[in-house]
């Protein structure tokens, strides 16, 4: 950290905020201490400073005071800079602290802490137990009990989240290599990302797959290696009415459970099978066993699941399911 | 702590510090340092830096005037810096996404604070809020049962009552009965959990709501003992223990999901998309079930005793198919296999339609 740079940037912000007029680079150099004498050094430093301010979200405007002015000037309009007036009720402020903690140790922890800092600066007293240091790390009480005894958290960061979130935010296409479920080698994908969604604790990105010419959903954990931008910002258009949550939900939730299976399940065992059973009754032809009728969606999945109960469950019907389980069990021994 | 702070991060803090003090008129050094997550010394450095800001043209002047005598900060002049900077896109998104997720948390009696706050933040963030619609975190509520249990847990928490659970443990395929003194309702990685002191285990345990078979709020006061430490959810829910058994599995490309679902000690890529993973578990019965489920897509490599257990279980399961089929035939008589097959394939047709 350079103290001189901080001082210079602060001076620049104050200077441009207090001027109603556009100030040229020369006028700024004269007003703000800390810029070098040499023109080329000044120019380079000033460019960097402008970029830094814009990255912080400072609305730096460029323009001229008169149509005849040669050099462009700069200013920051107070109205564009300032957080609008915001008043929170006590219960809203309590929820605010809780919301900021959701991201702790997850991807947007720093952003959440930054937001909380600004809201506190606006006079809002959020839950004082939530620290606002910019890294989003802990300073406060780790286990502070919440007003409502509720503590929601996101999981650990996914390395692909950062670049994909940036791409979604700035509407940039990306490429990455992706290992689809059950495939042995990763494939190159080019995607126009529309949104990222966390479902069942896992991150997904949905968008337009340029190679497949179709809408696709990818799981971030299956992206191998880095995510790279493959075009400039603003190149992605999200179709009107797109609901990324729905796209991910559709991909994730399986087909309806439209098949019925009949199993013989050892009495006192197979709790997992009985939990969602349609009916359970004692098997009169086989003492110590129950007959369990249950519904399933996918034969392969249900065959694997039935096999996991080992000698405690026997599929009686339908025959193709029964055959699949027998094949599967032989596979365990192969 | 300061070592890692960049110039722009410190600038952000300074820009927030002035309005923080101004909106409160007078505020203590210690309290402010705590709110900003810095030491009092760092705070004093910040205040000095602000006080020293000087603009030279057209006439030299100091735009910021403040004092912190007697540990009380007062900003008497700061012109245009009296309000904080607008929320950036990332900042607005982080809060809005989290709030929308919170509004989905089951068992909340009152979601109105969240809806009101969302509306206010959207209004304050303006354009920056619109991008937040592109990120979403969904809380997975398995079914109406889980929603109902969450409500009961909330009620038990506020009335400080013990609960009785019937709880499914898939690793052992068991329905267990336990009394639990509720501590918190957690939502971790999109799933709701009850955290509480389990009287049976004599320890703090987490219970996934979608595995609760039934829940009763008892007319007994809840009293978690003093040693009941809440789980640090930020460290992940899986706690390895030195008593755990290390299990090595070899997975085919189709079995790679195991590495995504369960925390692994190590994951090694083999050829053809295969993986070798090492898992830690207190309960090898769970791995036996996993191996039975994987079939040829996953093979236990070690420990050898577990390799034997899996083979035994599969052999016994296969034997059932022979023995129990015969039993069925014996009871219904004669040429039943083919009859059954015909009947069933007809039924299958109907089900598929």
3D structure, described in words:
With 334 residues, chain A is α+β, with helices and mostly antiparallel strands. Chain A has helices at 3-18, 25-31, 39-56, 78-81, 90-102, 109-121, 161-170, 244-252, 271-275, 299-307, 319-333; strands at 23-24, 60-63, 73-76, 150-153, 174-178, 187-199, 202-209, 214-219, 223-229, 259-266, 279-282, 289-296, 313-317. Chain A has a 5-stranded antiparallel β-sheet with strand order 8-7-6-5-9. In chain A, strands 11-12-10-13 form a 4-stranded antiparallel β-sheet, covered by helices on one side. In chain A, strands 1-3-2 form a 3-stranded antiparallel β-sheet. In chain A, α5 (90-102) runs antiparallel to α6 and α10 packs across α11. Mean pLDDT of chain A is 85; it is low at 130-147. Chain B is α+β, with helices and mostly antiparallel strands and 353 residues long. Chain B folds into 5 domains: 2-82; 89-134; 144-231, Roll (SH3 type barrels); 245-312, Alpha-Beta Plaits, CATH 3.30.70; 314-352, no CATH class. The longest helix of chain B is centred in the last third of the chain and has 29 residues, at 304-332. Chains A and B meet through α1, α2, α3, α4 and α5 of A and α1, α2, α3, α4 and α5 of B. β6 (187-199) of chain A pairs parallel with β4 of chain B, so a sheet runs across the interface.
CATH architecture of the largest domain in chain B: Roll
Q: What's the alpha carbon Rg of chain A, rounded to whole Å?
A: 30 Å
Largest sheet of chain A: 5 strands, antiparallel
Largest sheet strand order of chain B: 8-7-6-5-9
Give the CATH architecture of the largest domain in chain A: Roll
Arrangement of strands in the largest sheet of chain A: 8-7-6-5-9
Low-confidence runs of chain B: 329-353
Helical region count of chain A? Answer: 11
The coarse overall form of chain B would be: elongated
Strand content of chain A: 15-25%
* Integer-rounded radius of gyration of chain B: 30 Å
State the helicity of chain B in percent bands.
40-55%
Secondary-structure element order of chain B, as H and E? HEHHEEHHEHEEEEEEHEEHEHH
Q: Which two chains have the most extensive interface, and how many residues on each?
A: A-B, 142 and 146 residues
Q: Kindly, what is the distance between the CA atoms of the first and last residues of chain B, rounded to a whole number of angstroms?
A: 65 Å
- Global structural class of chain B: alpha+beta
């Amino acid at each position: 950290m350079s103290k001189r740079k901080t001082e210079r940037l602060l001076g620049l912000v104050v200077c441009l905020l207090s001027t109603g007029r556009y100030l040229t680079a020369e006028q700024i150099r004269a007003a703000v201490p800390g810029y070098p004498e040499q023109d080329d050094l000044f120019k380079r430093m000033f460019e960097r400073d402008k970029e830094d301010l814009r990255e912080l979200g400072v609305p730096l405007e460029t323009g001229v005071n008169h149509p005849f002015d040669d050099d462009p000037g700069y200013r920051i309009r107070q109205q564009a800079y300032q957080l609008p007036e915001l008043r929170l009720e006590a219960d809203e402020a309590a929820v605010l602290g809780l919301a900021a903690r959701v991201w702790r140790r997850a991807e947007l922890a720093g952003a959440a802490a930054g937001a909380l800092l600004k809201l506190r600066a606006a006079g809002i007293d959020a839950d004082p137990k939530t620290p606002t240091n910019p890294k989003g790390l802990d300073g406060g009480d780790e286990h502070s009990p919440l007003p409502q005894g509720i503590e929601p958290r996101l999981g650990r960061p996914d390395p692909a989240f950062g670049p994909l979130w940036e791409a979604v935010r700035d509407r940039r296409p990306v490429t990455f290599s992706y290992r689809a479920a059950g495939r042995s080698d990763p494939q190159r994908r080019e995607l126009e990302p529309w949104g990222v969604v966390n479902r069942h604790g896992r991150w997904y990105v949905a968008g337009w797959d340029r190679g497949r010419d179709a809408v696709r959903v990818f799981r971030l954990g299956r992206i191998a290696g880095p995510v790279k931008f493959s075009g400039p910002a603003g190149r992605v258009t999200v179709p009107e009415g797109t609901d990324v949550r729905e796209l991910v939900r559709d991909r994730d939730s399986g087909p309806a459970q439209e098949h019925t299976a009949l199993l013989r399940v050892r009495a006192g065992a197979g709790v997992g099978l009985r939990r969602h059973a349609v009916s359970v009754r004692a098997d009169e032809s086989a003492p110590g066993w129950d007959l369990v009728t249950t519904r399933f969606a996918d034969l392969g999945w249900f065959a694997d699941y039935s096999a996991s109960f080992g000698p405690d469950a026997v599929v009686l019907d339908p025959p193709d399911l029964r055959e699949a389980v027998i094949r599967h069990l032989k596979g365990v021994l192969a | 702590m300061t070592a890692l702070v960049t110039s722009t991060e410190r600038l952000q803090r300074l820009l927030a510090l002035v309005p923080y003090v101004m909106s409160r008129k007078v505020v203590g050094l210690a309290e402010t340092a705590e709110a900003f997550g810095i030491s009092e010394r760092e705070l004093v450095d910040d205040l000095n830096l602000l006080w020293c800001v000087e603009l030279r043209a057209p006439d030299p002047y100091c735009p910021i005037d403040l004092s912190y005598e007697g540990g009380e900060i007062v900003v008497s002049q700061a012109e245009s810096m009296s309000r904080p900077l607008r929320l950036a896109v990332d900042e607005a998104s982080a809060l809005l996404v989290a709030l929308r997720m919170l509004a989905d948390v089951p068992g909340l009696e009152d979601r109105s604070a969240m809806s009101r706050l969302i509306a206010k933040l959207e209004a304050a963030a303006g354009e920056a809020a619109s991008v937040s619609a592109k990120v979403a975190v969904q809380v997975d509520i398995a079914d109406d049962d889980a929603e109902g249990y969450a409500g009961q847990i909330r009620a038990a928490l506020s009335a400080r009552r013990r609960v009785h659970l019937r709880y499914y443990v898939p690793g052992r395929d068991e329905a267990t009965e336990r009394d639990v003194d509720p501590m918190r309702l957690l939502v971790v990685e999109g799933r709701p959990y009850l955290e509480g002191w389990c009287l049976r285990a004599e320890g703090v345990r987490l219970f996934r709501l979608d595995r609760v078979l039934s829940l009763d709020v008892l007319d007994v006061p809840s009293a978690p003992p003093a040693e009941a430490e809440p789980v640090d959810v930020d460290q992940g829910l899986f706690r390895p223990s030195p008593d755990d058994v290390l299990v090595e599995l070899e997975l085919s490309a189709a079995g790679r999901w195991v590495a995504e679902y369960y925390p692994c000690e190590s994951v090694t890529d083999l050829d053809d998309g295969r993986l070798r993973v090492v898992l830690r578990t207190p309960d090898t019965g769970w791995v036996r079930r996993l191996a039975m489920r994987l079939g040829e897509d996953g093979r236990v490599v070690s420990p050898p005793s577990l390799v034997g257990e899996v083979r035994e279980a599969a052999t016994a399961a296969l034997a059932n198919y022979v023995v129990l089929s015969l039993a069925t035939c014996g009871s219904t008589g004669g040429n039943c296999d083919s009859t059954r097959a015909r009947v069933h394939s007809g039924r299958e047709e109907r089900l598929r339609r």
